[in-house]
Amino acid sequence: MVKSIPLTKADVLHLLSEIVDPEIPVVNIQEMGMLRDVLLSGDSCEVLLTPTYNGCPAMGIIEQDILLLLQQHGIPNAKVKLVYAPAWTTDWMSDSTKEKLKHYGIAAPLHSSCVNWLKPDQITVACPNCGSEETLLVSRFGSTACKALYRCNGCKEPFEYFKCH
Amino acid sequence: MTLQEALFNYLLRLGDNALIQGHRLSEWCSKAPVLEEDLALTNMALDQIGAAQAFLKYAGAIENKGRSEDDLAYKRAERQFFNNLMTELPIGDFSFTIAKQLLLSSFEFFLFRGLSQSKDQTIANIAAKTLKEVHYHLAHSRDWCFRLGKGTEVSHEKLQNSVNALWMYTDELFEMGEADEVLMEAGIVFSLKEIKPKWLELVSGILDDANIALPNVDYMQTGSRKGIHTEHLGHLLSEMQFLQRAYPDASW
Question: Which of A31, A100, B79, B141 is the most exposed place for a label (fewest CB within 10 A)?
Fold first, then answer.
């Protein structure tokens, strides 16, 4: 007899909200927009995940975290499927998620409609520490591909900006 | 050439370009002129290797002989690679890498913008995703072109020399082959000739703003569409493929 999964889709989604991005542990994969869907059918459970960046090394860790967590909750045969469309965008982050990033010290991404890709310098990134808009881009790539390095001319602190994607 | 063969060949071209360019960028790890650039160049390497993974995985699925993306990356010989010659050239000095990045990223900008409209949904999806990353690569190389081109006499001269040396590899980016013809008929790809004038306009605009003169080069080197490479690819592969060659199927 096929043993069906003891949890509902809502349960699994709730469970998966425990999984955080290992590089930004204050936001979970749902808030990041990486968790796209959960498909339950009989004894199978498929988690649809979209990568943030093509080569993001956090993906492997997140996948393992998901499988381990589901195993601990009675779903031993879960699968993670990577989906590429629609392409991940930072526009999926809610205002409360952006607020969490800011509290963690990372300036939140601007909406993609604010960026002209052929003139990427025409944006203003406010400092997450003091709120000053007198900030300077130091490098387009920070500790991870998804962040850029900035310096605040107001409070003189360096900070990271989660790039609009 | 069947549609399947053409698609496999084209996907190897896309995957190999990303893989070889990614490997070259990764060679900057711990060697960049400043820490921020060490992070930037290796982050871009990661983007490229991620794109290579996606394209080669799909190539393996299309070929349908059970080869994974890793098999394709680590177990093919030099003549079976179809990356553009420019990607395999050694990293040179920082100005050479920046010039290479500018020429390649601006090409990728138009290439992936076009391919994101492909009738092949998998190619369209990977292209749309990769394009977002290319935006930042292009912005990065443009920033540095301005800084080097308008910096000191030495930095200007170095960048100008690098652009001059790379120029003879630019025609090949737009070279069309049998695979292109077959795939164009199926609506999967577009003619690279369409994007060449746009690419030239973008690149010459940036170089002009950076006080760098457009090179005047008569000879254009090609070869990669047939798997003919410069002497540099073999050396690159001997390092990149060493582990799988010495210990076949070794896993982490």
Answer: B79
